[in-house]
Structures
1.
Amino acid sequence: MKTEDLKQLANRLRFTAVDMIYKGKDGHPGPALSIADIMTALYFDIMRIDPENPDWADRDRLILSKGHSCPIWYAALSERGYFGERVTDFRLRALGSKFQGHPTMQKTPGVDMTSGSLGNGIAIGSGMALAGRYRRKDYDVYVIVGDGELQEGICWEGINEAAAQGLEHLIVFVDKNGWQSGGSVEEIQGSNNIRERFEAFGWHTQEIDGHDMDAIRAAAARAKAEKGRPSVIVCDCVKGKGLSFMENDNAWHKGVPTEEQYEMARQELLGGAQG
């Protein structure tokens, strides 16, 4: 897809995420919108997948370690054809729905790993990449983590193990939006020098604008070409990206738009067109 088409698609996915949160009356819009461009690039340009065969053994894998951001994942999976016809009523967080408040691999086609308890994605992704090596598979494993999430100790156990094993098929995207549920990362943890810390562990590192579609695609290509070590792409993102009333406002870590805000979202993301 052309860059401009991907940008428009990312905004359509953003509105779909807002729509399901609005209708479901619960969810995390800020963290979902910040990774919309990454998710769009992965599913519509980068990853080797087959929506008609979501369990294909040679597919690339994705772990959304910051699982509360799942509305944008559900939107991408729907648009990519994992549920047959495009879904219009996701029943987010409803009892028995395939679209739970955190991704569940037993319920949702295309979800490669259940997530929700923060911090586990990189370690699990390392295991998937190591399994691929043993099985002589060449699939890539992508993990999306938050910058606040990296305060979890298990993240760094996984980061250390991935480097020690030279897992070149492991590629981590960090959503560096500067916020976590309790406040800013700088206030809570102090240092957010993510790239330098990954470098110290022996990873191939890049830092990019997480909303620049061409930069995302180029960084993924460089990471895929790297041999003998895992890669991290630190993405400088804006929480709530795309909505004027939501951008960089941590009050939208979790929340439901009003009817007026919902219509604003339609105007700002779709130009008033129906989603």
Note: Residues 3-24 form the longest helix (22 residues).
2.
Amino acid sequence: MLFNNITIIDENFNVRPNMYVGVKDKKIAFIGDSKPYDDFGDVYNGKNRLLMSAFYNCHAHTPMTLLRGYGENLSLQNWLETRIFPFEGQLDDDAVYRGTLLGIAESIRFGIVSTTDMYNFCSNIAQAFTETGVKANIGRAILSFTDEELRETERFRECEELYKNFHNTADGRIKIDMSLHSEYTSNPKTVRQLAEYTKEIGARMHVHVSETRFEHEECKKRHGKTPSSYLAEHGLFDSPATAAHCVHIEDEDIAIFKEKGVTVASCPVSNLKLASGTCNVPKLAAAGVNVAIGTDGCASNNSLNFIEEMKFFSLLHKGIFAEPAASSPRDTLYAATRAGALSQGRTDCGLLKEGFAADLIVFDLSKPNMNPAHDLVSNVVYSACGGDIILTMADGAVLYKDGEYKTIDIEKVVSAAADATAAILKKLNQ
């Protein structure tokens, strides 16, 4: 495809009008200010359109679309124990598959082409991502409340099978991470053994860290260390890792993240909704820590609207720290694109750059909220709506265009998810 005479946000996050971008063999093959001689196939009219890198959601539980709005106005522990865990106890592989498809449809609609996901029934999650043409780093959450050997647990066997069957499949779109749910749902033996296995096979790690003050302080009481220090001591960060939330971290934790190359996935909307607090993104960024953006699950967000997430990500820190220059629009776009791609080990993704994967989105610049355009980067972060995205492309394949899904039967997906939810609610209310 050739994007013809279109405005772009380039690899340096600068706005460049009247550009030509050619996509061939899943890659961005040409960027220039004059029309190329090569034939790139279909021509896309770029008038009143903006082309930029697509988004990378670095912390999610995609099947939790089925729990959207199910537990409201509750603290995290109460929310988990009275609403989420009972509902999840009724999930099966088919329900997870249906919920994942619904989440993928929502993600594509909002420009997300790759998701770092942690959940259960992960083979069904991988199947859904594979079928729909998007990318995912998928991890089966490991929890352990006993002293048994990790390799003897059913959860670990699921991880092994998942890695064997799906890692780097679908031409590299699907990657399998290891996932420790958290410090407070495991024990030192499990952490240590999972860390060793992750390093042994060369996988990445995904873990919840210091999401609430209670979690953070209880770890210090149990182990005499912060969760980050405890996890690092047991080797969890010896593999490339993404630490989700990090709301209540301390200076020593930031130093660990910098030393170990840990990415922090900030989830501002979920953290606000559950009254967990605020991740200190400016301090992390100043220390040189890679900071990406996550939505968390729809049960605590309640959407996968990445435009909304970016706006919260940027504005929240200005208000909390009384610093209008905190998290500039360009910083925010970097976190939503390149930082996220790097956290997933996708080194040739997340920038509109020749030779990079053609993971791209198009905005409609004719919308009233996108005008005037004193600064288009600011407009994307502060003025845009999720509905302003009119094309989503992953690896050069158009997945969504002008309201039409190319790989998803949206009516069937919505209906199937509703049926799965109704069946679970019926069981819970018996």
Note: The chain has a mean pLDDT of 96.
3.
Amino acid sequence: MATLHDINRRINSVKSTKQITRTMEMISAAKIRRARERVERTIPYTAGMASTVTGIIDRVGASANPLLRVHDEVKHILIVTVVSDRGLAGGFNGNVLRAAERIMKEKAADGITADVIACGKKAISFWKYRKITPIMEFTDLSADPTMGEAIQLGNYAMEKYVDGTYDEVILVYNHARNAGDQVLRAEYLLPVRRIVFVDTSKAIPNWLAPMSAFVSMVDLNNLQETLATGESAEKEEEETEVSPEVVFEPEQESVLWTLLPAYMRTMFYATLIDSAAGEQGARRNAMKAATDNANEMQTNLTRLYNRVRQGAITTELNEIVGGAAALED
């Protein structure tokens, strides 16, 4: 049985750990608000661009730009995984990486090869452990992504899709649905499909939806609710179409050539800051759970300490009484 000294040492160790986890929880909670505000500031611009691009695509057709054209055969794809540089965030990183690995295996079963881009140190170590070398790596930017990172991602994906290196580009990341909840998303970025900008708290009923970036994700948690309420993507499409009265100068094809690259870079940036907000929420949840567990462990250890101490006192009293009785005899 553990001695009083051993139990007391464990109690002090748990207290120290609890202080660390509590501090990390408070730091993440403070960062969440700033991260969420940054996401919310991008939504009007992203929604406006998605609406405009959708309207032009409807008028000029998919053949107007190489980013819209679906390749005749899918042989090689690119998977972009967005995770964090740091751990202690629960299943935030593991869910994304396992989903990307599952997609890769499913594609491989159909004879499709895949390359990966790793955004975050955890993604780099995950792929390299599996003997897969990412073609691009980004580190130390997960908590505070930059537009430069989004531009590099967008330019590379577009260039390789246009020259035929890749037939599809898939993005896997965690969407911060709110301050405390993250939703796994898997989206087709290229070819660009009809864009449906929807409320990110709602769902589109598919796992890997062959639609557009940023809004084509499946929220499996809300799937049944979505189907039950009868909400559909068609309604959202009607709400996001460009008005027929819009006049384009120059012609729509030229405008599309300018807007699509900007749209792709915007989608990457929106994804990066969305993942950054989700990271802080996931870390806060994980640290809160760790703090609660530490409190419970400390309570249990304190009770054990008191029982052992009471037993030791009782034993000492019995020894004293026994010694006194022996002297009287």
Note: Residues 195-243 have pLDDT under 50 and may be disordered.
